[in-house]
């Protein structure tokens, strides 16, 4: 196989890359940076972002354990379909429960589709100081409850394919680490 063939194969290989982590951890920011880089290299890329998905695919679902699980499984279902058609699907979605994440991984394995779990491991102190959507402030003011990592569970991934200490490096460095992970798996 020539170098051109290998590069083509890497571009054509689909996979789901799930970025899990606390609110304001940097999941969306890092996913968008990686998406831009991959698109520039000729990959087909889709970003299934939590907020956008909740508006359509998961409209009507709330933030109970059951609804969070349904949300994650639905996203996983769509991601697998896309990935099976050669798309790199980046999923910056909190996905707080280990068993929901495991179900998505298994679903991909059953279909022979690549799946990588990335923990964006920004500590809650940093996340709450960023507070991009004002959720931490609302929780502190008693206007909201069930905030992941504060008064709702976040089960830290025990064995992710990659853990990014995103607060200790730049967005470009985090995206670069993810890109290196994909390259190591023959995907980029
Ligand atoms: N090193 C860094 N890596 C990632 N994001 C960073 C970094 N430093 C600062 N930020 C900022 O932190 C914020 C992270 O917000 P972002 O929306 O990406 O979080 P999120 O994990 O998607 O949160 P949510 O679950 O609420 O959607 C952005 O405003 C981003 O610019
Ligand atoms: Mg986000």
UniProtKB/TrEMBL annotation:
Alphabetical GO biological process terms: hydrogen sulfide biosynthetic process; sulfate assimilation via adenylyl sulfate reduction; sulfate assimilation, phosphoadenylyl sulfate reduction by phosphoadenylyl-sulfate reductase (thioredoxin)
Pfam families: APS_kinase (PF01583)
InterPro entries from the UniProt entry: APS, APS_kinase_dom, P-loop_NTPase, Sulf_AdTrans/APS_kinase
Source superkingdom: Bacteria
Residue ranges occupied by any APS kinase domain in the UniProt entry: 14-164
Keywords: ATP-binding, Kinase, Nucleotide-binding, Phosphoprotein, Transferase
SUPFAM superfamilies per the UniProt record, alphabetical: P-loop containing nucleoside triphosphate hydrolases
Keyword Acyltransferase recorded: no
GO molecular function, one term: adenylylsulfate kinase activity
Pathway where it operates: Sulfur metabolism; hydrogen sulfide biosynthesis; sulfite from sulfate: step 2/3
Binding site for ATP: 21-28
Entry-linked Gene3D superfamilies: P-loop containing nucleotide triphosphate hydrolases (3.40.50.300)
Catalytic activity: adenosine 5'-phosphosulfate + ATP = 3'-phosphoadenylyl sulfate + ADP + H(+)
Presence of the UniProt keyword Coiled coil in the record: no
Gene Ontology CC terms, in alphabetical order: cytoplasm
E.C. designation(s): 2.7.1.25
Family named by the database record: Belongs to the APS kinase family.
Protein function: Catalyzes the synthesis of activated sulfate.
Name of the protein in its database record: Adenylyl-sulfate kinase
Organism from which the protein derives: Streptomyces klenkii
């Amino acid at each position: 196989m020539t170098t051109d063939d290998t590069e083509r194969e890497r571009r054509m290989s689909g996979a789901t890359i799930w970025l899990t982590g606390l609110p304001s951890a940097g999941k969306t920011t890092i996913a968008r940076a990686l998406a831009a880089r991959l698109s520039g290299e000729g990959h087909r890329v889709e970003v299934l972002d939590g907020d956008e998905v909740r508006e359509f695919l998961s409209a009507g679902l709330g933030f109970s354990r059951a609804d969070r699980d349904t949300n994650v499984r639905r996203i996983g279902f769509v991601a697998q379909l896309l990935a099976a058609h050669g798309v790199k699907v980046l999923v910056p979605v909190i996905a707080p429960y280990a068993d929901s994440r495991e179900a998505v991984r298994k679903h991909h394995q059953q279909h022979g589709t690549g799946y990588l779990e990335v923990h964006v491991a920004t500590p809650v102190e940093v996340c709450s100081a960023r507070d991009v959507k004002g959720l931490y402030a609302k929780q502190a003011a008693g206007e909201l409850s069930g905030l992941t990592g504060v008064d709702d569970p976040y089960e830290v991934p025990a064995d992710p394919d990659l853990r990014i200490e995103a607060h200790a490096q730049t967005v470009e460095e985090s995206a670069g680490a993810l890109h290196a992970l994909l390259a190591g798996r023959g995907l980029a």
